[in-house]
Amino acid sequence: MNDADWSGAYDHEGGDGHEEHGKKDEEHGKDEEPTYEHGDSSDSARPGPAGPPRIPLPRASVEDTGRPLPEVVRQQPLVLAHPVLKSLLGAWALAACSPEESLAVEAHLGECGACAEEALRLREAVGLLHPAESLDLDPALRTRVLEGCLERRPPRIPVPGWASAYDAETARLDALLQDFGDAEWHAPVRLRWFRADKATSRRTTVAGVIAHLLTVDGLVAVALGLDDPLGEVPAKRPTPASRTEAYWGAAHFPPTRSVRGPWREQSHDLVRTVSFTGGPAGALPVSYGDFELSLRDAMLDRAFECWVHAGDIADAVDYPYEPPSGRHLHDMIDLAARMLPTALARRREAGLCAPARGRSLRLEIEGSGGGEWVIPLEPAPALGIAPREVAHVALDGVEFCHLAAGHVPPEEAAAGQDGDRDAIRDVLFSVASLSRM
Amino acid sequence: MAKKDAPPRWDRKMQQRLARGEAAALGELYDRFASLVHGLAHTVLGDERGADAITRQVFAHVWEHPDAYDPKQGPLRSWVADLTHRFAVQRLRDTESAALARGGHGTPEDLERKVQRASVAARADYIVQAMPAPLRAALELAYFQRRDYRQTASDLGVTEDEARRRLRLGLQLLSTAHDVGAPPGYGGAV
User: Where's the RNA polymerase sigma factor 70 region 4 type domain (chain B) (predicted)?
Assistant: First the structure.
């Protein structure tokens, strides 16, 4: 049979073909077996070269003709052309064709060695399909595998220690995004932070959060001389929030999953670039618009933000998400502790803090990544005078980070407190004031 | 079929970076291939700890011997999958032989059959991952979602003809997992 016949025979399976069967039954009644054989019905259904195009006659109901009704179940297999049968083998092996087609295929397998052989092969192949197992790799495995490798062959160009938290956190977030479908990418997320001692928030989507990370990580990229992900889009001010709003506003449509590639590429580029610039470059200034961080602190800050927003995303799609490793958590807490004196000073300038010259607060962080930090509340009047400890606050490390992320109101932070209440209040509010979009 | 986002250029560049001793490149290599490696190892060994161990072994091997990869022989992905397959099958053979030697159940023939089965299963997993996305999507619908080929066709927005073709071709590719003596590993499957 040539190709034209094949397609003709295939068309026969459509609605017209079935009608054709019915009509034949009516015309010939039950006294005669249907006569269509290989090719016969398809030929008659198509305009033959000899006769005029065949137009179906108007149908009459069998009940009205007085003739016997056809049997309800007809076991007569469909007769299909060889190429059609062959093309059905995959669907047949997967039990994905109609019962009539299955019967036709099976009848054919008894007669055609080549098809029988292929059918067997394909059936066996179906047995190899199985649902993909959950590929959630333990994030700690990445650290173990990489450390194991680097011990066996020390790197000539290592990733600086201060960039390892960013490396780990971006990898962890990327793994979370791995299996996201459109529903997850467009799930609503509410970004929360503190501004002027008040909880504030901004609605976006999972994709919008990744766009936010992309644009703010871009501050580090710019400081390193890499391309700005914002491109030609003008931001009102070079701050994280302003850049993010500019990026969101520049597109006609909300961000989609397509933002993942650029975000991941940039995060890989940052790790790679800081590896080449090396340890001394850690002091390079990175501007956040309103303030500046050294490159090493900016990378820690970005690691922290990556974790916090990964948590926002995980909450939005109802996935569990663990805190960073103890070592990385410790570095993040340390950064916040080091930023606290400036935050306290800013609040004092705004008249929100009581004077506390020469006093300090002991911050005790419990749990993995914990430690103790002495926070000077206000610089001593003269150098060399040790500040006097007036209060002691104890907090779990993850709780402290939630507070610093603006996810927990300072009044509600579960903190053990002892000593000067004003000092404690000022410090907890200052921790919350570290948060931003 | 090579992934569109992983042109040979990426492979060659990655190899150079690894050879240069760039730790950041090792991280990127892991990010791209860890789930492939871990998944294949898990298919062969059927246990998490074994899969973790193979993952360590594979990345250590690539990191220590980046020059062993020859871009002319195929994509880096195939090479990594091939290494994984070989290490995992070796580990399975070792642990099973040790169990047998300690007086465990079964015969050396059983062991061989088990190794063979695991090996075919891993190759099948790789083929499914590496096959063109339209074929994989058709198999996914027909097998996992139990759609017949007509529904599959309409879900995919293709003709019924095309749906049957994809299902058959997908299974044909998959069936090559049984071909013992195929060129070592995955070169033929991609």
Answer: 127-173
Q: Is ipTM strictly over 0.95?
A: no
CB contact under 8 A, B55 and A141: yes
Q: Looking at residues A374-395, what average pLDDT do you find?
A: 86
- When pLDDT is averaged across residues B141-170 and rounded to a whole number, the result is 95
Q: CATH number of the domain that A193 lies in?
A: 1.20.120.450
Measured between its terminal Cα atoms, the distance across chain A in Å is 69
Query: Which residues constitute the domain of residue A355?
Result: 327-433
Q: Within this chain, do residues A419 and A313 fall inside the same structural domain, yes or no?
A: no
- Its domain, for residue B147, covers 131-190
**Is the separation of the CB atoms in A411 and A431 below 8 Å?**
no
Would you call A195 exposed, middle or buried from its count of C-beta atoms within 10 A (0-12, 13-18, 19+)? middle
Chain A from 250 to 289: CB within 8 A of any B CB: 261, 264, 268, 271-272, 275
Is the minimum CB–CB distance between B53 and chain A shorter than 8 Å?
no
B123, B136 Cβ separation under 8 angstroms: no
Instruction: State which residue of chain A sits closest to B179, comparing Cα positions.
Output: A121
* Residues B164 and B75 placed together within one structural domain of the fold: no
Q: Residue A44: which pLDDT band, with cuts at 50, 70 and 90?
A: very low
Same domain, B101 and B139: no
Tell me: do B177 and B140 sit in the same domain: yes
Record the pTM.
0.79
pLDDT tens across B2-36, in order? 444 456 899 999 999 999 999 999 999 999 999 99
B21 and B104 in a single domain? The answer is yes
Is B159 within 8 Å of B47 (Cβ atoms)?
Answer: no
Alpha-carbon span A153 to A148, nearest angstrom: 9
Cβ–Cβ under 8 Å, residues A163 and A271: yes
Residue A65 tokens, joined? 């003709």
Q: B148: domain CATH number?
A: 1.10.10
Q: Which residues of chain A lie closer than 8 angstroms to B24, CB-CB?
A: 157, 159, 167, 268, 271-272, 275
Contact at CB, B64 and A271, closer than 8 angstroms: no
